[in-house]
Structures are given as structure tokens and as C-alpha cells.
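Question (not urgent): is this output format expected?
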Amino acid sequence: MSELTPHSARTAGPLSFMKMHGLGNDFVVLDSRGGDAVTTPALARALGDRNRGVGFDQLAEIRDGTDGADITLDFWNSDGTRAGACGNATRCVSAHVMGQKGADKLSLRTTRGKLHAVRRDGVVSVNMGPPVLDWAAIPLARQVDLLHLPLDGDPVAVGMGNPHCVFFVDDLAAVDVAAWGGAVEHDPLFPEATNVEFAQLRADGTIRMRVWERSTGITLACGSGACATAVAAHQRGLTPRAVTMELDGGILHLDWRDDGVWMAGATAHVFTAELTPRFLESLE
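Got this back:
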């Protein structure tokens, strides 16, 4: 991709972007390596509009690596707010950059710290880092039992660079994810709001999970949510540390190891395109 400059400094020319998805969890990816960051809240909101922009669950911006990392990744929600972590976007970008470099390993700097990705047999795995299991760091509004939150449904709280509230249910098909997830997202227990996962343990030991993402709503998959659900399931004694999970968009493989929660699954680079100068000028 060509060198990009901050949107406010652009006087002419289009802005390139990629559309990617991991299990239907879709992203706009901007590559600003070699220049300054280009994303603003206004640009994120405009691109996130599925009718007037491009549409995405999250936006990821690739920047030059710092502190020994190959690249830096920033994440945005479609409402123009920052996202703390995005596991599927991290896998998609890792696959793209490793392809560029002809490498099977990559290090990434995010708000979670320095993360690592590897590619084996064409499948990209990303270490999303250790789970956050301290109430203040997730964060929660007050100290509570993280394995049994004082909310209807007896959920579990886990941090994965963003807060998660995981409910284990007997019949996932009967859950109104929008109504229940939307209500819990802004519960006072979560001062920064929360992602909400609903998980059903199957007889074969796998998990079926659906997710309500804060600032976004129902998505086909959520990488950090899958990681949080795997951690919660093991803590509750429901699964071993390694578990296979089916989300609306497909299958993820999770493994909570000593160095963090590893996540593997399919990625797709759908297309590369350009935002027109007129579209960009409309955001001025």
C-alpha cells in the first residue's frame, strides 16, 4: 500500500483500505505504515455505516511497530470509539502481513501489549495474552466474585483487553441475545460497558457461543469473546484449557496456555479498494 498521511492533512488522492473477515466478523483495515495514523472518530463512523460507507464490526489500523514489535495495531468501533482488542482482526492482519513478509511468525503491539502470531499449515494462530482476572483491571465497578457475578443468570467476568461477561445457558437457541446482551452491556457493574457472551456446553465437550459486542451489537464471531468464554468455561470446570468453539460464523480453536490464550481459525481478505477524495472531503 502507498504511504498514507493524516486525513486532516490530505489534500488530494484516494485512501486505500482492505476488507477482511474472520468467520464473518468483518473489518476495514487501513495500512498507515511509513506515515502517521489516519483514523479519526469521524472517519470510523463514516466507514462503519453499512449504507453510506463500507461497513464493519471493527476497524483496524496498521502502524509501524514499536518496542521491538513488527507492527502496531489500533482498533476502532463503528460508533467512533476505540476498541481495546479484536482477536479476529488481529488474526486477519497477521495473515496479511506474514504473507507480505514471507514469514510464519509475527509480533504485534496493541493496547494488550506485545502479542505473537504464527502460521502453521495455512492457519494463523494468535496469542491474545493472559486473561485479566482482577476486578479493578477488567474493570468492574466494585469487588465481586468474578466466577459468580451478582447478576441474573450467574455470569463470569473476564478481561481480554476489553471486558467480557459470560453466561452459560442450557438452551442457546432460546436466548434473545439482542435483548439480554443489550441490557447487560450497560449494567452499572461495568463502568466501561461490556461485551456479553452466551455459551452452551455440548455433550461432545465443544461450546456453542453467541455474542453481543459493546458499541456494535450481535456479530457473527468475536475473537476476544471466544477467548474469554474459554477461560470462563475452564474456571467453572466445564472444559479443559483447550476447547473447540462454534460461533455463528464458524469454528475457532482456543487454548489457554501458560503464556496466554491462543486462538486459531480461518481468515479471509475479501478485497482491496479506495475511498474517494470526495468521500474524504465530506468528513472535513
